[in-house]
Amino acid sequence: MQFIRRKKNWEHIEGTIFARLRSFLVSFFLCLFLSSCAPLVHPLLICELGDTGCDSDRDGVFDGSDNCVSIPNPDQADIDKNNIGDACDTDVDGDNVSDFNADGTSRDLCPESLTQDFISNSISDYDGDGCEDDVEDDDDDSDGIDDFVSGTTTPLDLCRRSKTKGFQSDKGPQTNGKQSNDYDRDGCQDDVEDNDDDNRDGDDIDTDGDGFGDTVDLDKDNDGLDNFVVDTTIQLDQCPLSLTQNFISNSIRDYDGDGCEDDVEDDDDDSDGIVDFVSGTTTPLDLCRRSKTKNFISNSATDYDGDGCEDAGEDIDDDDNGLIEIQNAEMLNNIRNDLSGKSYNGSEDGCGDHEKGITECSGYELENNIDLSSIATWPPIAGEFTATLDGKGHTIIDLAIVGSDGNSPLGFFESIGDGGGVQNLAIREVSITGSGKRVGSLAGELKSGGSIERVTISNSDLANGGLRVNLKSTGMGGLVGKSAGMISNSSTSVFVCSLEQGKSRIGGLVGENTGTITNAYATGNVCVDIFSGITPGGNLSHVGGLVGWNNGSITNTYSAARIRMQLFAGVNGKFFVGGLVGTNSTQGTIMNSYTDGGALGNNNLTTGDLVGRNTNTSSTSIVKSYSHDSGASEAYSVIGKNSPAILGASKKDLPELTASSSGWSSDNWDFGSNTQYPSLRSTEAINGEYLLLCGQIAPQVLTASETRPADQQCP
Q1: pLDDT tens digit string along 535-580?
Q2: How far is CA 241 from CA 206, 217, 244, in A?
Q3: What is the rounded distance in angstroms from the CA atom of residue 369 to the CA atom of residue 502?
Q4: DSSP for 387-435?
Q5: pTM over 0.70
Q6: Between the chain's N and C termini, which has fewer beta carbons within 10 Å?
Q7: Given the DSSP bridges, would you call strands 363-366 and 323-326 parallel, antiparallel or unpaired?
């Protein structure tokens, strides 16, 4: 074995060699004496530092396990757990501050810091003395001034983190009555950071208690936002002295990052230029207090109604009228997600205007014509629609509805409920096929409290389009299947055809009416094809050019629809057909109306030019209402079956009707020339400039004193 002499450890090594040699000789002679020697496993070794099996520092721990080989440390203490024993470690607590300087003097004043894993840096240990500022350092900047009065939070050092590191507070010699260093011993260096050297005027205020006086503190309220852009006069923190102590600016408490706490002191949380609330109240002005686009500024181009919601992608009600703007087929389809009209896909952003008394949205409005050809089959909007749909004079094109289960209402809407309403809308090229109960282009049913105003329905191809439905039970109409609500200023020009299976009520406008219908008309075709299998005398069908069965009020209406009834072999039910109304029931009234329709068909029909059957015994049930008198012999009377006789219905030469001969008001009727049929005026314009006329939109509004040009007369 080669002997290596190391200067520092030779004395220890030398002792170890002789100790092991002595042990070996004793073992050898003992072995000879006992005449039984096991193999010698304790060879003569020279113990070098770090050798396994050696204990160089004689502390009872072999070198291979000793975390401090050269210095005895039997307790193996290792505070920072870095596998270097404290006896050998130059940074016992691992805070990145060496325990001693090169000359052996202490450097880390807290060599065993209280907080495990504490790392010294400019934030946690401002003066770099190895003591954690907020936990164990009484003098964060080592200026000789304790930070606080002992045992309290009362500040002593008003500049706990003095700008000049290494600054030592000292009165020093007087110069012109002012001390050169820290005259008032407040911990602030006089010539650098102290605006009140004698501490008499109260200038040294430290709002956030961070050790920097307000006059020199870059962040006076310690909210995480500097007061100014560095080296400029541009103010960053708009609330440099926040009202809430220890307030920290973040996206939750300070959305726009202006340094003002949103719920306490910020009047404009998103800095869009719109104040959040009416002054001194909780009434909202900014309906999007936290706009999706940060740095969005409200102006006429980005925020038309000035409600604080960005028009593009955020504001669902750009004009603040309480109606959500609908611009395309996808958006129209999405109205089924909220039948109350209060939100669009879950968002209520932009709904409301305190000056108009609007607190929420209540419906939808079309911004343009909408083509539904991209939606092959329109599922009826299920449930009760209780909102407003304002078409604003626009048209929905190519609406294709297909019935499925046969038991649900069919239409654009299944049902328009109490408070729901549709207005100023045209639907063109509509078709409904399949099987259902209560069928109409706009809605299967209109319930009491619901309304339809200034709506027109038309088919571009009356022969092949329209409504062709296997009607299982009551109510099928070009506009609404069953109505208990209010319909006004509306019209249809559609093909309504029922593949009859039993008891039903079918009309060009409404199948069954218990509500009110005013200023309305129907053109087009109504057909009923009744197949065999109906129990003789057991089923009733009521078919009318305008309304199939009426137990409500009909005023200022007409029908030019053509009716066809086809009863196949074996059918022997009861069928009532009228040019205007199939059956006028016990509470039904008809006033100021006419028909130029008629019915064609075969057997088993009770037919009237105006009404198929009337069961209202009141003498005012049908008033000032007429069917056309062609001057020739006619097969049908004005009323097919009547109890009792009604004097308010008669035949007249309709083109020759005048206000005096008809008893109708010119406010509602335009009589034209003596070769024209009377046509309806709309007393209200669509969106201020359009008029519903014979299923079309006319280019002008007529007042009661004006005469409609000949090319705008109804056909």
Answers
A1: 444 456 889 999 999 999 999 999 988 887 766 555 556 778 899 9
A2: 10, 11, 9
A3: 38
A4: SEEEEEEEEEEEEEEE--SSSS-BSSEEEE-TT-EEEEEEEEEEEEEEE
A5: no
A6: N
A7: parallel
